[in-house]
Amino acid sequence: MLSAKSLFQEIIDNDESFALFCSIAAGGESQGGWENARIAALVPQSAHHLAPRIARHGADEDKHGRIFNALLRKRGLAPVPVPRDTDYTMLLERAGIGLAHDRLRADHPLTAHDIVTYLAHSRVTEQRAAEQMTLLRKHFADHPDLGRAVKMISNDEDNHLAYCHEELLRLARAGHGRAIQQTLRRCALAEIRIYRDVSLAVMAHMGDILGWPRARSVLLAAGIHAVYAWERFAGWRRMVRLEMPERRDALGGPAVPAPEYA
Fold first, then answer.
1. Which residues, 6+ apart, have CB-to-CB distance to 243 below 8 Å?
2. Are 103 and 117 in contact (CB under 8 A)?
3. CA–CA separation, 101 vs 190, rounded Å?
4. How far apart are CA 221 and CA 61, in angstroms?
5. Which end of the chain, N or C, is surrounded by fewer C-beta atoms within 10 Å?
6. Residue 142, SS3?
7. Contact 227, 196 (CB under 8 A)
8. How far apart (Å, rounded) are the C-alpha atoms in residues 87 and 231?
């Protein structure tokens, strides 16, 4: 029976597919760490209270990248090149979602509009990350190798999502509500398309490594397209709703250290 758990179990049981999975995850997390660190350094004076929280966000993402690389080392594996069609972060930037890397490399303070763009992009992508980690936590929280990593990263992603909700609501009250909703909608619609494309690419690469029969690959691709159809019709709306989170000031303290093996 094909299920999310059995599919992922097959991927982590094979060294080559596990190396690809961890390398893709580590690359995306490390890139997110760099982006947040640059944003924290460029925050305008009008949003100075955000700088330590954005820096904490970046530190968490960087920590996640180290955790995935540590999981590889623990298994005696090395990172592998990430196929371009699986590079979620790069594809989002190429689609104009979030702040362009050229903008972040320039030593010019960000604007209030840039902060709205950053937080809206983060709110959408952290929704995806939190959902993915919730799924992994459901099935692998007790896994001897992955369990600690999955639980820590899942908790961090929940914190990141709560922080985005709280700060966007603060900006909405300050008069940026219309810009926030427009940016959230544009980000969400682009993200679901890119997530579909990346999911198809990842499953194609995994299928090649694991020798999946064509019928199975076709079934998985159909499932990915079905998820996209639902998200395009209505599911994207969950990514643009804003509500005050139960976790208040979720990034207000120091980052939690990575597990010992990382």
1. 165, 169
2. no
3. 18
4. 29
5. N
6. coil
7. yes
8. 21
Identity of residue 104: L
Q: E-assigned strands of the chain? A: none
The span from the CA of 10 to the CA of 179, in Å, is 44
1-40 burial string, b = 16+ CB within 10 Å, else e?
A: eeeeeeebeebbeeeebbbbbbbbbbbbbbbbbbbbbbbb
pLDDT tens-digit readout, 214-233: 999 999 999 999 999 999 99
Q: What is the rounded distance in angstroms from the CA atom of residue 141 to the CA atom of residue 148? A: 7
CA-to-CA separations, 222 to 80, 103, 229, in angstroms, rounded: 28, 38, 10
- The alpha carbon of residue 156 and the mean position of all alpha carbons in its chain are separated, in whole angstroms, by 11
The total number of residues shown for the chain amounts to 262
Mean pLDDT of successive 10-residue stretches along the chain, which has 262 residues:
86 97 97 96 93 96 97 97 97 95 94 97 98 96 92 97 97 97 98 98 98 96 98 98 94 75 50
Assigned token pair, 60: 């968490």
Assigned token pair, 36? 């947040």
* CA dihedral over 202, 159, 230, 119, signed as positive or negative: negative
